[in-house]
Amino acid sequence: MAPIEIADFESQGVTLTPASDVDFDARAQAILAGNAAPVLELKPYLAIVRNGNARTVVAYAIQWETTLRNGTSEFQYTQFKFPDAVAGTGNGLALLEGREIRTGEERLAGMGFEAWPPEYASTYRDYGLAAVTHLGVAASLRVALDAVVFDDGAMLGRDRSRLAEHFIEFVHAKQSLYREIVVGLETGDGLDAVVAPVRGALARRQVGPPDRMEDYRRQAASEILKFHNRVALEVFRRTLRREPFTIRRLSER
C-alpha cells in the first residue's frame, strides 16, 4: 500500500485514521456492522473520521492529495453537511437526525462518499472504483481534514473547499423551506398544498448559469419530501432557529 500521510485536528479531538492503520479493517467492520468487505477493496482511498470532541460535528471536508507514479499530484475534496443538526434549539427530534458525528462516534469515508448504510456497501464500492481506476497505483497519499464545523458554529481548518460557505447556504435553504411550511400550516392550508412549493423546488429545471443556492434548495426539498407525511406543525416549528447560524474560526492549538 502507498505511504499515507494524515493531517487532522488531534488536539481538538477530531481525528483521521488511514487505511494503512493496523486496526483499520476491524474498526471499519464495526462501523458497517460486519459488512465492510466490499468497501475495503477501495483501500488506500478510505479513512475513518472520529469525533472525540465534546461538541457534535455538523459538517466536515476531507482533502485527498494523491501523488501519482509520474510525479504529478491530484487533489479532491469531499464535503459532508448535516443542516438539520443545527435546526431549532436543541429540539431533540429523532426524525431529523442525520449522520452528524456526535462525541465518540466514527464514520468511514471515501472519495465522494460516506459508507452508510451497511446494506449499501457494495454500491459504495462500485461508486468508489471510478476514482481508484482513474488514480491507479499511487506513489503516496495525503488525507487531511480541510475543515470541521461544530454545532455551536466553531470551525477548525483552513477551509480551502469553502465548507463554511456551502454549509451556511444549505442551512439557509432548509430553514427557508421549513419556514414556508410552518406559515402555510399556521394559516390553515392542507399539508399537500403546503408542500407544493417544495415539490416545485425539486422539479424546477436549471436555467442560465449554475445557481448554488438553488441547488441546495432542491437538495433540501428532496430530503424534506422523504418524511413530510410523518411530520406535523409542531415538528417544523421546532426546526426554526431563534438566531442565524454563524461560523467562527477556532484555534487548532
Output the keywords:
alpha+beta, 253 residues, 8 helices, 33% helix, six-stranded mixed β-sheet
Write structural notes for this entry.
The structure is a single chain. With 253 residues, the chain is an alpha+beta fold. It has 2 domains: 4-156, no CATH class; 163-249, no CATH class. It is built from 8 helices and 10 strands. The strands form 2 sheets. Strands 1, 4, 5, 8, 9 and 10 form a 6-stranded mixed β-sheet that branches. The chain has a 4-stranded antiparallel β-sheet with strand order 2-3-6-7, covered by helices on one side. Helix 4 crosses helix 7 (212-227) and helix 6 crosses helix 7 (212-227). The longest helix has 24 residues, at 163-186. The chain is globular. It starts with a strand and ends with a strand. The model has no long low-confidence stretch (mean pLDDT 86).
Proportion of residues in β-strands:
15-25%
Uncertain regions spanning at least 5 consecutive residues: none
N-C termini distance: 31 Å
Number of continuous helical runs: 8
The secondary structure category is alpha+beta
Q: In the residues, how many domains can be counted?
A: 2
Query: What pattern of helices and strands is seen along the backbone?
Result: EEHHEEEEEHEEHHHHHE
Average pLDDT, rounded to a whole number, is 86
Shape: globular
Radius of gyration: 20 Å
Outline the secondary-structure elements.
Layout: E1 4-7, E2 14-18, H1 24-31, H2 37-40, E3 46-51, E4 57-68, E5 73-81, E6 106-110, E7 113-114, H3 121-135, E8 138-150, E9 154-156, H4 163-186, H5 191-194, H6 196-203, H7 212-227, H8 233-237, E10 248-249
Parallel strand pairs: 1-8, 9-10
Antiparallel strand pairs: 2-3, 3-6, 4-5, 4-8, 6-7, 8-9
Helix pairs in contact: 4-7, 6-7
